[in-house]
């Protein structure tokens, strides 16, 4: 079970965007793409077959999963995540600080 999933709100703890938070749009291996975080400019050539114009395109670059923490709305900070098995057999993610269940 992954500690960070698509749709989670994460807090960036290292790098040029340290202190910012945003929503995870993709998880690829050990890297995550966070909406409007770690934006880079990419110089692209035009591709007429795909109707793609050339120029400078700004897009999100991946961030290593170790540089983000799950964002706790109650405290307004990043929080560590653990796992817990509930009485009905479901395995859920919980915040280590207060034991609150992340998954509804």
Structure description:
The chain is mainly beta. The protein has a domain at 9-43 and 53-76: SH3 type barrels (Roll), CATH 2.30.30.30. It is built from no helices and 10 strands. The chain has a 6-stranded antiparallel beta sheet with strand order 6-3-2-1-7-8, with no helix packed on it. The protein has a two-stranded antiparallel sheet with strand order 4-5. A two-stranded antiparallel ribbon has the order 9-10. The two termini are 15 Å apart.
Strand residues, percent: over 45%
* Strand line-up in the sheet with most strands: 6-3-2-1-7-8
Number of strands: 10
Q: Give the biggest sheet.
A: 6 strands, antiparallel
CATH architecture of the domain at 9-43 and 53-76: Roll
| Overall 3D shape | elongated
Proportion of residues in helical segments: under 10%
The parts where pLDDT drops under 50 for at least 5 residues are none
Enter the CATH topology name of the domain at 9-43 and 53-76. Answer: SH3 type barrels
Series of secondary-structure elements, N-terminal to C-terminal: EEEEEEEEEE
Secondary structural class = mainly beta
Using the CA coordinates, give the radius of gyration: 17 Å
Distance between the termini: 15 Å
- CATH classification, class level of the domain at 9-43 and 53-76: Mainly Beta
How many H/I helical runs?
0
pLDDT averaged residue by residue: 93
Q: Characteristics of this structure?
A:
104 residues; mainly beta; SH3 type barrels; 6-stranded antiparallel beta sheet; two-stranded antiparallel sheet; 10 strands; 46% strand
Blueprint of the fold:
Layout lengths: L8 E4 L8 E8 L2 E4 L4 E6 L10 E6 L2 E2 L3 E5 L4 E3 L1 E5 L5 E5 L9
Antiparallel strand pairs: 1-2, 1-7, 2-3, 3-6, 4-5, 7-8, 9-10
């Amino acid at each position: 079970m992954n500690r960070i999933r698509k749709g989670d709100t994460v807090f960036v703890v290292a790098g040029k965007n340290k202190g910012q938070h945003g929503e995870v749009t993709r998880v690829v291996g050990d890297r995550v793409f966070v909406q409007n975080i770690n934006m880079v400019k990419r110089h692209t050539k035009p591709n007429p077959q795909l109707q793609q114009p050339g120029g400078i395109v700004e897009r999100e670059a991946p961030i290593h999963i170790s540089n983000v923490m799950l964002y706790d709305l109650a405290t307004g900070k990043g929080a560590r995540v653990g796992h817990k098995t509930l009485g009905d057999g479901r395995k859920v993610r919980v915040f280590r600080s207060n034991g609150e269940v992340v998954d509804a």
